[in-house]
Design goal:
Largest sheet: 6 strands, parallel
Structural class: alpha/beta
Shape: globular
Helix content: 40-55%
Radius of gyration: 18 Å
Length: 270
C-alpha cells in the first residue's frame, strides 16, 4: 500500500461494505473508489440480488465536498463512514491521471448516475425511493423518470422539507415500501448526516446521496454543454447560471479543493 503526501496510510476498502478488489485514490483524507458509472450500476445490481445485510452507503466527492470536509469535522466524519465514495468532481479524474495515481475511469456525476440506474432498473425490476427537494420538484422528477424509463418502479417519494423530529417516521415510511435504492437529495452536509444517522435502521440495499439532482431531471437546473462536461468544467456553468446560490460556493471552494488535492493525495489497493 502506498502512502499519501503526509505519510498517512490509506486504508482503502477496509470497511465492511467497501467493494473488494477495487483500486482507490485518496484526496484530503477521503478514499475514492476507481469505478466507472457502469461499474457502479453493476455493483448495485449485484447487491440488490444478494444483499450485504445492511445498506451500502454511497457518497460522492467533488470540489465543494472536499473543501467542506476540511472545515467541518462532522461532515468529514460522515463522509469517511461511507462504504463507497465515487468521483462526482471531474477534476479528481484528471488529477488521478496527472499525479500518477490509479486512474479513476470517468466522472460519475450523480446527475448522470440517476439516469444510468433508472435505465437499468427499469429492465431489472428493482425500485427507487426519492427523498429530497421541494414537493413540486420531487413529484415532477418521479413522474418524468417513470415516463422516460418505462417499467421503472418508484416505490415511494417524499420532499426534503422536514425537521429532525420527523426523521424516524420518514425512515419507517421508507422501510414500509422496502426500496432497492434510496436516493437522498438533501444537500451537503445534511444528506450525509441523515444517511449515517439512520444507516442501520434503513432497509434499502443502496443509499445514494445526490444533492440537487432531482432539479436537473425536472429542468429547474440546466446541465452544462457537452464540451464543458467533457472538459470537467461543468462547475463554471453552474456558477454562472445559478449565481445567487452557487457563485460564491464555487468561487471559494474550487481553488481550495484543488490546493487540498494537490497537497494531500495517495493511492492504495486492498
Amino acid at each position: 500500500m502506498q502512502q499519501n503526501s503526509h505519510n498517512l496510510p490509506i486504508e482503502c476498502n477496509k470497511k465492511l461494505g467497501a467493494p473488494a478488489g477495487v483500486a482507490c485514490v485518496e484526496f484530503g483524507g477521503i478514499s475514492v473508489q476507481c469505478l466507472s458509472r457502469a461499474d457502479l450500476v453493476n455493483l448495485a445490481l449485484s447487491d440488490c440480488r444478494v444483499p450485504l445485510g445492511r445498506p451500502r452507503l454511497v457518497f460522492d466527492l467533488n470540489g465543494h465536498g472536499l473543501s467542506l470536509a476540511k472545515s467541518d469535522p462532522a461532515y468529514y466524519a460522515d463522509v469517511i463512514a461511507a462504504d463507497l465514495v465515487h468521483a462526482d468532481g471531474g477534476f479528481l479524474v484528471t488529477l488521478s491521471s496527472l499525479l500518477g495515481l490509479p486512474k479513476i475511469p470517468e466522472r460519475s456525476a450523480t446527475t448522470d448516475m440517476l439516469h444510468d440506474f433508472a435505465s437499468t432498473f427499469a429492465r431489472s425490476g428493482h425500485s427507487f425511493y426519492l427523498l429530497g427537494g421541494e414537493e413540486r420538484v420531487n413529484r415532477s422528477c418521479s413522474a418524468i423518470l417513470q415516463e422516460k424509463y418505462t417499467g421503472l418502479r418508484i416505490a415511494g417519494r417524499r420532499h426534503g422539507y422536514f425537521g429532525d423530529d420527523q426523521e424516524e417516521q420518514i425512515v419507517e415510511e421508507i422501510n414500509a415500501v422496502d426500496p432497492d435504492v434510496l436516493w437522498v437529495g438533501l444537500g451537503k452536509p445534511r444528506e450525509q448526516a441523515f444517511c449515517v444517522r439512520w444507516r442501520n435502521k434503513l432497509s434499502a440495499r443502496w443509499i445514494i446521496t445526490c444533492g440537487g439532482c432531482f432539479n436537473y431531471v425536472t429542468g429547474d437546473y440546466s446541465r452544462a454543454p457537452e464540451w464543458m462536461q467533457r472538459s470537467n468544467v461543468e462547475w463554471m456553468h453552474r456558477m454562472v447560471t445559478n449565481p445567487r446560490k452557487l457563485f460564491w460556493r464555487y468561487f471559494l471552494t474550487t481553488p481550495r479543493a484543488l490546493w487540498i488535492a494537490l497537497r494531500q493525495h495517495g493511492s492504495g489497493r486492498p
